[in-house]
Task: structure prediction
Amino acid sequence: MRNLIMPLAALCLIAPAAFAQPAPAAYKPPAGVPLLPTAVTRHGQFYVGGEYVGDGDKRQMIGQMYVEVWAPAHITKPYPIVFLHGFGGTGTVWMQTADGRKGWADYFVEQGYAVYITDGPARGRSLYNAERQPKQVTGNTEDNQRSLTNLREKGTWPQAKLHTQYPGTGKPGDPIFDAAFARGVQSIQSNAEQERLVQHAAAALLDRIGPAILITHSQAGPFGWLIADARPKLVKAIVAVEPGGPPFEDRVSRAPERAWGVTDIPITYDPPVTGPEQLKHEPEAAADGPGLLVCQKQAAPPRRLVNLVGLPIAIVTSEASYHAQYDHCTAAYLVQAGVANDHLRLERMGIHGNAHGMMGEKNNLQIAGVIAAWLKRKAM
Result:
């Protein structure tokens, strides 16, 4: 035993010198991998809203929604923010811009909010089940340039030539365009099915986290109205960034769409509506101004969107976006339905040159500041 112990003791004495290693060099991120300082000191992730389908031990889950939560060391705002992305996107659009700058999620954490960043059901980190869910579609570079990045060349509406804020050429092959386009994911083709999925999952989210503010973008605009309709006591404000619209019709073909006015699936009206054919509507006599579309409005007497009445709502519209033609129609429709709202047209606030993807453009934090100021006035 003594012969065994002595070598071990000797080894312990010489180990520090024999196995000493040089101090590691400071970590340097690879070129093109931006690391940002952040106020996030706590984070987590979970899923909500799924349901089992099928029989016995062969069951599967569909409809679940991925949620990521970020929080600062000290939460100073009374309600968290839930971010809901648009068509073809995921929660990454809120996290960091394609050229590596701070996104809106980090900005609002710095303002003292906890934020919940979602990947809508059936896309991103939320399972899509091709056997049990409707067909998906994928965006392309032409549509992306026309609507988000290269409006001056590809846009066909009057305001498109005013676009100046995209941080790059806006064309395939430009590293910023490529990084942004790489984020795109497939989306369920049916807006109605996507609305049903998000309304169910987001209602489950609010049941779990309590009252919250919703920030929606594009396709998610109707999601916000539907979530508030399902949980009117748990939605404290909605910031609808260029919400899906205009009421009742497709913006280009003018074909019927959003049969329930601002949504494709039922939303609560008073007097009650049992079918969308009961929502009689008619075009305005003329557009409100140059470069604007003629709006559809309810025929008199209008019905009220009772679960949205009294809710602080802001609609944010940029100067050069295709939404600049018709977001005023959504704002006016809500007012006619008894729902007061603030239509924040950025050019009237001295913020120029933005397109539909404003949360990723050069002045994205200036726009976030406008939203933060509105929330301070309306939702605190």
